[in-house]
Automatic annotation (TrEMBL):
The keyword Heme does not apply. It comes from the Eukaryota. It catalyses: N-{alpha-Glc-(1->3)-alpha-Man-(1->2)-alpha-Man-(1->2)-alpha-Man-(1->3)-[alpha-Man-(1->2)-alpha-Man-(1->3)-[alpha-Man-(1->2)-alpha-Man-(1->6)]-alpha-Man-(1->6)]-beta-Man-(1->4)-beta-GlcNAc-(1->4)-beta-GlcNAc}-L-asparaginyl-[protein] + H2O = alpha-D-glucosyl-(1->3)-D-mannopyranose + N(4)-{alpha-D-Man-(1->2)-alpha-D-Man-(1->3)-[alpha-D-Man-(1->2)-alpha-D-Man-(1->3)-[alpha-D-Man-(1->2)-alpha-D-Man-(1->6)]-alpha-D-Man-(1->6)]-beta-D-Man-(1->4)-beta-D-GlaNAc-(1->4)-beta-D-GlcNAc}-L-asparaginyl-[protein] (N-glucan mannose isomer 8A1,2,3B1,2). This is Glycoprotein endo-alpha-1,2-mannosidase. Belongs to the glycosyl hydrolase 99 family. It is a single-pass type II membrane protein. One of its GO terms (molecular function) is glycoprotein endo-alpha-1,2-mannosidase activity.
Length: 457
């Protein structure tokens, strides 16, 4: 009997031990929270995690935003939604790679708002008419009405800002610096001139130079086609720029193969002036020649058509650039022609500067021009352009643009925004800094590759 009781106690103890083990095992498998936690994997995707509250509040709205992320929608009947942060997002915290002074970005300082300028400028851009009246009558007329209705298919993180706002200039220089771009090519009109939608901005140049210098950036000049631009007025312009700004530490000079460090000037729409007039300014024997003088420099002409390259040679230019961010739109902007253009430039000792961009859409100001829209494809279009440019082994690459919002070529930060009449495009599912980050990545690639082929050249 005693033996039986002993066996029963042993069996009972083993059974209790087994039950206890099972309970402990189940406790370990149980989640820490009684309620549902984050969906699986969101801890690894902070961008998605930050957006999950919007899904709870308005799933249909977010679904529509996703569907329409690559097109504008007019006459949308919905509540106005603006997803604009209270201040500009912070620059990158990780280690900043060196600036690439062979990477230039086109920069525009023509934007205005009532706070700094007394009125809106450029954000209220007129809707341009098609040259064919029969086509033009099928599209809207008038001007945009900021701050919610602006002349752009995207909406800036900084809102409808003024280029005169010191905090805006500071933020822009931070963004350019964060992208490892070394040089900004400033859109420039002479002091007495301006574009048809703005005011003179030459008085802003000192502030831009000062802020650029703070971030070790350099500034070159992108001379616009002002009224009556010719060899004589250009001589005065170059003398004015070099005399007034040439001694500033942020004033850009390009070191040539001969060891000279010369100012560089991009000349937009150079082809509208006859090559004979350019030759007066840019050849040694010209009547207005700046060659071998304190005002000598490197003058880069815009090539649109193939035939322009011979006019550029005759005019005495030092190089060509292609400006447009629309592959296939012009001969110069088509990637397939860049290798031939580079060979031409090499043969005649010209600088070839291909222009790359993140995409193109100008239908907010040219609603009839949808055929020239180039979809960004979440950055793939931009990376394809950069890869094509690098294949030509260029001395300089230019980016169209930092902030040409009218044509949708900007790499500046943009945010999602919806009004009762418009859904603006944005960079989702990526952050507003997507194109700055891509630029920084390719700036490093370009620096390494250029170091290699520059030795061979």
């Amino acid at each position: 009997m005693a033996k039986f009781r002993r066996r029963t106690c042993i069996i009972l103890s083993l059974f209790i031990l087994l039950v206890f083990s099972l309970m402990m095992g189940l406790k370990m498998l149980r989640p820490n929270k009684a309620t549902f936690g984050d969906p699986f994997g969101l801890d690894l995707l902070p961008e998605v995690r930050q957006r999950t509250p919007h899904l709870e509040k308005n799933f249909d709205s977010q679904k529509n935003d996703k569907i329409n992320s690559e097109i504008n929608i007019k006459n949308l009947k919905s509540i106005e939604i603006t997803m604009k942060p209270s201040k500009a997002s912070e620059p990158y915290s990780e280690e900043q790679p060196p600036l690439n002074y062979n990477l230039h970005v086109f920069y525009y300082s023509w934007y205005g708002n009532p706070q700094f300028d007394g009125e809106y400028m450029h954000w209220n851009h007129p809707i341009l008419k098609h040259w064919n009246p029969k086509i033009s009558k099928n599209y809207p007329q008038g001007k945009h009405k900021p701050p919610d209705d602006i002349g752009s298919s995207f909406y800036p993180e900084l809102g409808s800002y003024s280029s005169r706002d010191p905090s805006v200039i500071e933020t822009h220089m931070k963004q350019i610096y964060s992208a490892s771009i070394g040089v900004l090519a400033l859109s420039w009109y002479p002091p007495s001139s301006h574009d048809e939608n703005g005011e003179s901005t030459d008085d802003l140049v000192p502030a831009i130079l000062d802020k650029a210098h703070k971030y070790n950036l350099k500034v070159t000049f992108h001379i616009e086609p002002y009224y009556n631009r010719d060899d004589q007025s250009m001589y005065k312009n170059i003398k004015y720029i070099i005399d007034k700004y040439g001694n500033h530490p942020a004033f850009y000079r390009y070191k040539t193969k001969t060891g000279n460090a010369l100012p560089m000037f991009y000349v937009y729409d150079s082809y509208i002036t006859k090559p004979e007039q350019w030759a007066n300014l840019l050849t040694v024997s010209g009547s207005q020649s700046i060659r071998n003088s304190p005002y000598d420099g490197l003058f880069i002409a815009l090539l649109v058509e193939d035939k322009h390259k011979y006019d550029i040679l005759q005019g005495g230019f030092d190089g060509i650039y292609t400006y447009f961010a629309t592959n296939g739109f012009t001969y110069g902007s088509s990637y397939e022609n860049w290798a031939k253009l580079k060979l031409f430039c090499d043969h005649f000792k010209l600088i070839f500067i291909p222009s790359v961009g993140p995409g193109y859409i100008d239908t907010s100001i040219r609603p009839w021009n949808a055929q020239n829209t180039r979809n960004r494809i979440n950055g793939k279009y931009y990376e394809t352009a950069l890869r094509a440019a690098l294949q030509t082994h260029p001395s300089v690459i230019s980016i169209t643009s930092f902030n040409e919002w009218h044509e949708g070529t900007q790499i500046e930060k943009a945010i999602p925004k919806r009004t009762t009449s418009t859904v603006y495009l944005d960079y989702r599912p990526h952050k507003p800094s997507l194109y700055l980050e891509l630029t920084r990545k390719w700036s490093g690639i370009y620096s390494k590759e250029r170091a290699t082929y520059a030795l061979d050249q």
